[in-house]
Amino acid sequence: MGGSESKPIQQEVHQPKPNPEPKPNPELDEPWRKFDWGQKEALKEKLENFSLSDPDVNHIKILVAGQVGAGKSSFINSIDSVFQGRICSRALVNTAAGDSRSFTQKLKGFPIRSGRKSLPFVFKDIMGLEAAALAGSQTDDIINAVFGHVKDGYKFNQEQALTYKDQHYTSDPTLSDQAFCLVYVIAADTVQLTDDKLIDKLKIIRKRINDQGIPQVIIMTKVDEACPLVNKDLRKIYTSKKIKEKMELCSTKVGVPLSNIFPVKNYHEEIDTEDDIDVLILKALEQIVQIADDRLLDREIY
């Protein structure tokens, strides 16, 4: 019928879809820092029996400073919780969302106890640092607190640093008044966003106390919020590429060597203590106490 020829049916040729690029592995093959997760009891016993290098000093003081909301007070509470075997909250913490003001307004010392036994170190909580020039604790106040010139109970004044005329100023501090280590608390989830003005404040403090040989340590908090890998398994903390990058960024920004930076998870939603959280805190505390005691021993050099 008619002269038309039927055309052959052409089959569609399906091109294979290119394989998606594999996601980079967020985990290192090996831990970049060796860590013994089974050392909790040994560390706890060592700290409970720690003796200071100077018999005339009953307690060694450690000053805790850091950005508002980084977890300074929570870190002190977490240390307390480890030794008490229960969640403690002696240092008051603000959990209100969006509140950029420091909840800590006064200088206060927190002796650490194991059960009812007092341990030979006291943590001093100070008002949180803010980026603005006259916001948060003054750099001079922190420096004076390190050198023992500020009495407990001093309420920080954002408009003016403490002067020698104030009743809370100690003109001739004893060794027991002075801090022998300054701990900066920096949140891992926001370290890359930390304002340069705040970093400048830390550098001013660092330079002033470096001249007197006061060691500095960084406690990097909120590791579980900064890395999904660590959020699922805290033991991935030293194989996490993200946590390693955060620690390296901390070191570069503040100038503290990696060997003096310790990532931890503070207690904040738990109702019972956990061994993995405890052992990270205890290891950081052991290093802080050793570093502070070395400075106490070497104080005659400066």
Count of discrete alpha- or pi-helical segments spanning 4 or more residues: 8
Quaternary class: single chain
How many domains is the backbone divided into? 1
* Overall pLDDT score: 85
Detail the poorly predicted runs.
96-103
Task: Give me the strand/helix succession.
Answer: HEHEEHEHEHHHEH
Strand elements, count? 6
Report the CATH superfamily. P-loop containing nucleotide triphosphate hydrolases
Name given to the CATH architecture: 3-Layer(aba) Sandwich
Strand content: 5-15%
Integer-rounded radius of gyration? 25 Å
What name does the CATH topology carry? Rossmann fold
What is the CA–CA distance across the termini?
112 Å
Report the sheet with the most strands, covering strand number, pairing sense and barrel closure: 6 strands, mixed
Task: Label the overall shape.
Answer: globular
CATH class category name: Alpha Beta
Which range best describes the helical content: under 10%, 10-25%, 25-40%, 40-55%, 55-70% or over 70%?
Answer: 25-40%
Structural class: alpha/beta
